[in-house]
Amino acid sequence: MVDYSKWKNIEISDDEDDTHPNIDTPSLFRWRHQARVERMEEQKKEQEEIERKKAETLEKLQKTKEKIAALEKEKADSPDLNMMKNALQELELEKEKVMSKEDELKKKEKLMPWNVDTIGHAGFTKTIINTKPRKGEDDSELPDDVREQRMNEFVKENEKKLKKYGMLRRYDDSKQYLQDNPHLACEYTANYLVIWCINLEMEEKSDLMEHVAHQCICMQYILELSKQLDVDPRACFSSFFSRIQIADPEYKKSFDDEVASFKDRIRKRAAEKVAEAIKKAEEEDKLARLGPGGLDPVEVFESLPEPLQKCFEAQDIPLLQQTIATMPVDEAKYHIRRCIDSGLWVPDAKANEKEKQDGTEEEDEEAEEEQEGAAAAAVSANKSTESTVTPDPE
């Protein structure tokens, strides 16, 4: 049978049904609680004092026994031995007194009524904290070169899988494929699909670009959902594919609008990259055809007077000499200099070729000065004697 009598004697500070009207009840409860706390403190100090005396007595008793044992081995009859034995008896009596006080204190504690502080205690405690799925490593704060290196390594290891994901269309297929390859649910996959879409549009594969663009937006929605929930993308792609299939019209329209907007951005970016590529190719062609003086022969040719253009188009040297002779000296020198700097006109081409064969070369400045002098002489001579200058073309 269970004994419930121990619950009958419980001390509570506010355990009073009626109090005198002239007594302030809250103050009375406060005084009673303070008195109980003070009694508990005194009892605690008394218990600590008994524990301290008990430990000291046991320690002295142990040391006395050890000394008596040592003296008995040395000398059987010794005044010190008798003194130690007397001390041992006194310590035994002291021990009995301490143990008696301890028993009395325990009996006193059992007779004391329970209160809010002694009625119970915690048997054990356990704390459980729900944790979110661990997020993947965030590389947004890494240097650009490190991020690019990681991106290249990821693409190198998973390019076939990335292309296969990009070619999927049904939501269930995409969901199952990511479940089989959860590491693909990351920022690198979205970046790769964007680059692939741009390249496809530049190659004029618009239909395939639109197909891959749909998969790219799905991945971007998964990444955005993971940011909102503050979880790893691998923990939420299943939720996205389940939701998109039963989504309300407003959510579905928002998704379709994002896909259409993404396709427009891809077309615009692809057109910009094509224009940049064309411009870069033109600049490379221009650099490749620059003459020894750093001028573009096409630009120089277009800036020449029409008679000189006809001479170069026909490659007629006598006509060129006559045309130069009819021009003012300064203007003729200006155009001849630009033709030499752009490579349209090579002064002393045959002589230079012969010198190269002989293993010698002349400096450009001397050849240019001689050519300018020859051009000036040709103008003067043609005006006076109608004779011609015969420079050697290459």
Model description:
The protein has 394 residues and is mainly alpha-helical. It contains 14 helices and no strands. It has helices spanning 25-74, 79-111, 144-167, 171-180, 187-202, 206-229, 237-245, 249-288, 297-303, 306-314, 317-325, 329-342, 349-358, 364-385. α12 runs antiparallel to α14. The model is unreliable at 374-394 (pLDDT under 50).
List the helices and strands and how they pair.
Elements: H1 25-74, H2 79-111, H3 144-167, H4 171-180, H5 187-202, H6 206-229, H7 237-245, H8 249-288, H9 297-303, H10 306-314, H11 317-325, H12 329-342, H13 349-358, H14 364-385
Helix pairs in contact: 1-2, 3-5, 4-7, 5-6, 5-8, 6-8, 9-12, 10-11, 11-14, 12-14
Topology, number of strands: 0
* Shape category: elongated
Mind describing the biggest β-sheet?
Answer: none
Beta-strand proportion: under 5%
Q: Indicate the percent of residues in helices.
A: over 70%
Helix segment tally: 14
- Rg computed from alpha carbons, rounded to a whole number of angstroms: 53 Å
Structural class: mainly alpha
The total tally of domains equals 3
The average pLDDT value, as a whole number, equals 77
Tell me the CATH topology of the largest domain. Methane Monooxygenase Hydroxylase, Chain G, domain 1
For the record, the CATH architecture of the largest domain stands as: Up-down Bundle
**What is the class of the largest domain in the CATH system?**
Mainly Alpha
Domain Cdc37 C-terminal: 289-380
Biased composition (Polar residues): 381-394
Keywords: Chaperone, Coiled coil, Cytoplasm
Biased composition (Basic and acidic residues): 1-11, 350-359
